Amino acid sequence: MAQFGMRDQASASKDPIESVERLQQVLQTEYSALDSFDQEILKEIHVVRDLKSNLRTVKKHLKLLKRLVEEYEKVIRSIYQLHAQSSTNRNVEGMKSKFAVFDQLGTRIVQTLRQSEETLRALLVEETHTLFAATEGNRNEMLEIDKEARTLLGELLTLNGNLMGHNQQLAGIKKELEALDAQRQNLRVSAERVKGFGR
């Protein structure tokens, strides 16, 4: 009995310290886990906020792009109308000025298209981001951003495809115009030579 009592006393004197240390270790682990989780949540919130900001920027770009494309299409229609005239009556200078505007607008449109496409592709979840697992709210927001980005990207690529079709056709018209312009200049030079010879 005496021996049992001694072992019990030793156990009693040791257990409280072990229990406190063990509890502190467990609590420290829990605190670390909570801190890590809080940091992850904050990171997610910041990233979602950035994604939303980028999406708003792209929408502004698309509004600008649509206005530019409207003007671009007006110039394209005007070129087609001038080209519909016979080569004899075709207004070469008028077409050249239209093509100058066409080229200027085209450069700006291509720049905006590329910039918008790059930003939209960066918003697609599986391509650039790990889908958030920490909170359902952030995860759902990312999926909504992804969905909207895909819709806008589809609209953008369709717009680009339509413009590419016009560009190919107008490249042929431009070559034809350059040939006609060169032909008329040669005729003018020849006429001036004949006129000078007559004098």
Describe the model:
The chain is mainly α and 199 residues long. Helix content is 90%, strand content 0%. The radius of gyration is 36 Å and the shape is rod-shaped. The relative contact order is 0.09. The mean pLDDT is 78.
What's the quick description here?
By secondary structure, the chain is mainly α. It is built from four helices and no strands.
End-to-end Cα distance: 146 Å
Residues in helix, % = over 70%
For the largest beta-sheet, the strand count, sense and barrel status come to: none
Query: Could you say how many structural domains there are in total?
Result: 1
Strand content: under 5%
Helix and strand composition category: mainly alpha
Keywords:
4 helices; rod-shaped; mainly alpha; 199 residues
Layout of secondary structure:
Elements: H1 2-83, H2 92-121, H3 125-128, H4 136-198
Helix pairs in contact: 1-2, 1-4, 2-4
